[in-house]
Amino acid sequence: MSFIIIILSLALLIVLISYFKINAFLSFLIVSILAGVALGIPLESLPVSVNNGIGTIMKDLTLIIVLGAMLGKLVAESGAAQKIADVMVAAFGTKHIQWGLMITGFIVGIPLFYGIGFVLLVPLIFSIVYKYKLPAVYIGLPMLAALSVTHGFLPPHPSPVALVSIFKADIGMTLIYGLAVAIPAIILAGPVFSKTLKNIKSGPVTLFEQKETTGNFRTPGKANSFISATLPVFLLILVTVIPLCFPNMSVGIKSFVSFIGAPSLVMLLAVIAATYTLGIRQGRSIKEVMDIYGDAVKDIAMILLIIAGAGIFKQIMEDSGVSTELANSLEQLPVHPLILGWLIAAIIRGCVGSATVAALTAAGVIMPLVIQSGVNPNLMVLSLGAGSLMFSHVNDAGFWMFKEYFNLSLKDTLRSWSVMEAIVSIAGLIGVLLLSFII
C-alpha cells in the first residue's frame, strides 16, 4: 500500500506542475503533506517533518547556491563572459568555430546559471551566423550542449550541489568525476551530432536582446575574465587533490586545507576576489556591485524554494518508513542502482519538464537504496544529473527558449534540441557506468 501511495504522490506532483501549472514549491509542499497523512505520520508530527526537511537539505547548500549566483551574475554583468566568448572565437577561427563555441559554453556555463548563460551567449551565436554565413543550429548547438551539461552535472549549480548534500557525497570528487563524464558527452552531443543538422534553417533572434551595459565601466581583460569565472572550480579541485598527493600532512595543515576546502568558503573567496577583479578594479563602486548581488539572489529565490520542497518530500518518505521499504524492494530488481536512478530521473523529467525537480525528486526515491547498496554517492549524483537531462520536449522551458530564439519549427526543435539532450543524458550514464568499474 505504501508503494501505491508514493506512486500516486509522484503522479499528483507531475499533474500539479505540468497540467495545472502550479508552482513547483507549492506542489511539493501540498503533495508532501498529503503523502504524510496517507502514510500514517501523526498530524502533530507533520509540521516537524516539513521543517526538518527544509532544514536538512538547505543547511548545506544555501550559501553555495547564493554565492554561486552572485558570482555568475557579476561575470555576466561585467562583460567577462562576453570576453571569454570573444577570445574563444578568435582562437579557433571559422573552420573550428563549433569547438570554440563549445569550450566557451563550458567555461561560461560553470559559474552561470543555464538561463543567464543562454540569454548571454545566443546573441554571440547569431553575430557569428550573420558575419560568416553559417547555419545557426549547426554552430550554436555545441555551445548550448555545454551549458546544459554544466547545469546538470557540475557544482556549483543548484541541482548537483543539492544532490551532493542529499547523498553526503564529496563536492570536489563529484566535480572531478563530473568533468570526466561531461567532456565526452558534450563532444558527442555538440560538434559530432550537430554535423547532421547543417540543413536546418533558422530565423533571426526576435524575442530577446542582450542587455546593454551602461556607465563608465571597463571590460575586464582576458586573463582576469577566465580566472575570475573559473576560480571556484580550480579551488575545489586543488583542495581535493592536495590531500591525495600529500597524505602525510601535519594535522594543522590538514585542518587548514579542510577549512579552505569547505564549498561555502571556496565560493565566498571566489566572490570576494571577483568583487575586486570584476567590480572595483573595472570602475564599479561597492554599492553597484552589491546591487548586482542583490539581483542575483532574487533570480534564484524560487530555485531555493524548489530544492526546499524536494527536501520536504524526502523527509516525509524517511519519517514514514516508506524509504526503507522502497529500498528493500528496489534492491531486489535486477537493475544496477546507477541505471535505476538515471531511469527514475529521466521519467520524471519527461513528465515534469524541470531537470532540477526531476533530479531532486528521484533522489528522494533512490536515496535509501544508495545507502543499502553502497554505491558510490558521487557517481549517483552524476547519474541522476544525467537522467534529469533526458526527454526534453514541450513541457521544458529550455525547449521553448531554443525554439523561439532560433525561430525553428516544432519538428526541427525536437530533431535538434531534444535529441541533443538525449545524447548528453545517455552519454553521461555510460560515462558514469564506466567510472563505476574503475573507482
UniProtKB/TrEMBL annotation:
Subcellular location: Cell membrane
Record keyword Transcription present: no
GO MF term (any one): gluconate transmembrane transporter activity
Pfam families: GntP_permease
UniProt membrane topology term: Multi-pass membrane protein
Transmembrane segments: 28-49, 61-81, 101-129, 136-154, 174-193, 226-244, 256-279, 300-317, 337-367, 379-402, 414-438
Gene Ontology terms: cellular component: plasma membrane
UniProt keyword annotation of Zinc present: no
Entry keyword set: Cell membrane, Membrane, Transmembrane, Transmembrane helix, Transport
UniProt record similarity statement: Belongs to the GntP permease family.
Protein name per its UniProtKB record: Gluconate transporter
Organism of provenance: Dysgonomonas gadei ATCC BAA-286
Source organism phylogeny: Bacteria, Pseudomonadati, Bacteroidota, Bacteroidia, Bacteroidales
